[in-house]
Automatic annotation (TrEMBL):
Residues 98-123 are annotated as: Disordered. This is Uncharacterized protein. The lineage of its organism: Bacteria, Bacillati, Actinomycetota, Actinomycetes, Kitasatosporales.
Amino acid sequence: MTHAKTLFPICGQAIRLPEHLVGEAIRLAGEHGAPDEPDVERDLRCYLQIHDSRHHFALVLDLAGAATGALWTRWAEADSPGALEILPDCSYADPESREPCSEFANHPGAHTHQLTAAPVESS
């Protein structure tokens, strides 16, 4: 007998990265390689599990190299992103598929392989 995997819905809050943070992302990522401006995510979405926190997080740019982490931004409900920070990658991997989590270390909620963008039907 197989068991259906329980999936949790993502937050999905969307926002646009302010243009001044695009240059900041390239500057911060420079020590990890030379990212191109098109590599910087501008249309951001919070992919964390639905949460009660007012703060949302979004990946802005993966950094080149092993164990370098990624550039993330966060914003509150009524604000736009104001800063970037380098956060280490979550080290969790799905035990069955070995798919690594795409979030940052110590993120709240479920890991990416446990999430769905589709609405979860209530029973």
